Structures are given as C-alpha cells and as structure tokens.
C-alpha cells in the first residue's frame, strides 16, 4: 500500500467515526420503539398534523426564501459581471460579508434594524411622535425571508457573476443585430446560458434556508418553527429522543433527495458555452442612464448591508448618546444569572475551540485534497462526494447525533470540550477542501517531474514545490475553518456545557433573559463576534489565489 493510500485512511476513519457513526446512532434511536418494526416514531410524525405542517412549512419557506435570494442576487451579479467602476473589487468583497457571518449575528442585526427597539422604529417614533413602533415584522415570515435573502444572496453573486462575466458576448451581439432589444436578448439568449449557474446557486441557497436554525429560532416563533427548530426542541427541551431521531432522519432524506434531483437536473441543463476572459465581456457604460443604473445598484447593495451597520450602531449607543456602556456591562452580572460567564472566558473559549478546529480541519482537508488531486477523475468524483457529505447535514442534527452516540464509555465525550471541536471540524473541513483542491489541481505537473528527475522524494517535492504554492489557499481554508467555528451555533447549543460556553450560545442566552441590560450585552457580544469574523474574511479575500476555491 502506497504512502498516499495510507494517509487517506486517517481522514476516512475520522469521517466514519465522527460522522457516519452518529448518523447511525440517530437511526438506531429512531427505530428503538415498542411498536411494529420500531417504526412508531415515524408513524407518529407522518400522521400527526403538527409535524406534517412543520415538514411542509420548512419546504415552503425554503422555496420562498430561495426566490427572494435569487431576486436580490441577480441584479448584483449583473452589476459585477457587466460593469466596471472604481472600487469594484472592494465592493465585491464587501458584498460577500453576509455569507460568512454567523447566523446569530445576522439575526441580531435584523433585530437591531427592524426590531421593536430597532433603529427604524426608533427613528420613526422620534420623528413623528408615535405611541408605538409602526414597523412590526418581528416574529413574522417576512423578516425570516429577508434574513435568509441577506445571508444567502452572496452565493448567487459569487457563482452567477463569475459565470456571467466569462460568457462570450457574440450571441448577445448577434441578437442585437437581428433587432432584439435588451430585455428580449436577456430572456431568450442570456438567461438560458446562465441557467446552470442560477440553478447551482439556488440549490445552495435552498439548502441553507431548509436547514436554517439560528435565524428561524431568534426571528421567528413557535408558529414558524422549521424541522431544524422542532428537532432541537424535541431533543433539548422535551427529551423525546426517539421522535427527534425520526425527524432528523426525515430531514436527511429530504436533503439528500433534493441534492440527487438537482444533480440530475444540472447534468441535463448544462449547455456548451463559449467562455472568454472577463476583461473582454465587462462593459464600461458611458451613457447617463447606465451610470444612474449602476449607481442605484451600488446604493441598493450598501442598503442590503444595513443590518450589520445597525448592529454596530446599537452596540455603541445608549440613552445619553454614543458610549461603550454595553461593552462595559458585559463584565458585570447585575441580574445574578446562573448562566453568566465573563466575556473574556467566553471569547477565550470560542477562540480556543476555533484554533483547534482550524488545525484539525486543515490537516484533514489538506490530506483529502492531496489524495483527490492525485486520483483518477472517476474515483476522485466518488471520494469527493463522500467527504463532502457533512455539508448536507445540518449542525443541529450533527449535534444531536453526537449527543446520543458519545454518551458512554469508552467514547463518553459529553463532559469534554473536545466534542465541540470535533463537531466544528466536521462542519469546517469541507470548506478547506474546496479552497485547497483547485489550487492543488492547478499546480503544473512538470514542476513535480523536474523535482523527481533531480532526485527529490515525494515528501521533499510536497514541502518544497507544493507547499509554497498552496500557502495562500491553505490560509484561506484555515481562516474559513476559524470563522465557521467562531460562529457555529446549532451543534454548540446542544453540546455545550456552562464552563465551555461559546460566543453564539452566550448571545442566545442573553436574549432569553429579560431586561434592556441583557439585550445591550447581547448586541455588544454580537458586535465583537462580527468584528472577529470580519477580520478573518478580510484575510480570506487578501490571500485568495486568483479567485480559486469553491466558496
């Protein structure tokens, strides 16, 4: 057995033990019932009107959220694909910030902007001397749709704009010569060519909305609970583990079924298109109408980011103006809460877990990427799909699997902080693969051949040829892993112990306690988390190698 095959055994064992085994534990628990063939929990779910409504609502809200996302993302994708203007690179980087933000930060941002005490209501009440906040969309479907579109629209922008910018303008020019207007050309020529990219981005947006947890839990309510929220409540609050396991299995079936359908659709929808360098397709508009249009899109894009600005503004504001009182209050426990943890300990926990997650995710992701880059295309495709499976499982389901799988010796991890790190690394390492693999595949083969001719061993070739080229991609992957761990909420809420509280969990617990002081602390801690993740994002954009990487 070659060294390369021996190396892949480690990540494979890691995937089997910490991913497949917890899923099998969920399945086993869901079938552990005193009924025919142990199918009692499934029959309960499929006959109870409440759970059937939750299943239908999850699908429906994900569909509508996806439509919102595509509607917001396509104009922005057009802006970046077909226009040149000063600051375009910076603005494109800024437009991606929502996607990397933790879901709890996004939810807090919308509360700071549109909540009962948010900026919009505060301005309207103060300006028109109103008795009550006029904007009342908290705990409504509208704010959930808006938050999902805010969080996922950058997926559409990244995927569609890159594809759109590389489309050859010849077909559009031919349509114009035949008398077709801009709208007709877009509908009959451009849109069919863009369909694979639009569908690809829409699928990702649907998957994130379908498995959304933090946004729905905080901005929604009992009336708008999704499968993810119901699974959490059954497992953590009602302790109906068999029913929670059955619901988790149903959610997994829906997720993977949809991905299979998408794969087949994408294969049939793909078309042969002529791609050209981006610089040859981008248009520099000089007419006043086009200038106004571009300027309007830029203003709209900046408006989309308003929840993050609102979060920052709320964090530094007080009744007497702007101050740091909310940040200072983090260091006091005025209410005497049992769950209080000092901000330094909470931030320290999150940073420590994120660093450990980063090490594991980069190690596993690099080994897998190296193996995939050297494998035959057919085998690489199968293995790539296998190692990408954690992306199709929600964090709540993963946390629930850990909860019931590692609850007894010799694998009792419930009292250890390592269970959080392992869960975070499973969520993070696919991002490392998507960052590192394209760069590995792009390394010219003649460099390795020359090193081999000169007598270099495979190890020396890797460290002296591959590593210098991979350094940027590795930093991107490591930063992704760090940011994912810092903002992870679903699995952490199920697995965390009081002494290992992370920043997202601390924010959620502060929101669950009454009083303006607790709300102020939650906003301040959310801002700190936002700043930490934003710094990581800046590093990602700074060291991304020629826009390589899947995210």
In short:
The protein has helices spanning 3-30, 40-47, 49-82, 88-95, 97-100, 103-114, 119-128, 141-165, 170-177, 182-210, 214-219, 227-237, 241-269, 288-304, 306-316, 325-329, 343-374, 377-387, 395-405, 418-442, 445-453, 458-487, 490-495, 503-511, 516-543; strands spanning 317-318, 321-322.
Order of helices and strands: HHHHHHHHHHHHHHHEEHHHHHHHHHH
Q: Give the overall average pLDDT.
A: 80
Structural class: mainly alpha
Q: What is the chains' assembly state?
A: single chain
At the fold tier of CATH, the topology name of the largest domain is MetI-like fold
By CATH reckoning, the class of the largest domain would read Mainly Alpha
Domain count, please report it.
Answer: 2
Instruction: Give the overall shape, derived from the CA principal axes.
Output: globular
Major sheet description: 2 strands, antiparallel
- Strand arrangement across the biggest beta sheet: 1-2
Separation of termini?
Answer: 34 Å
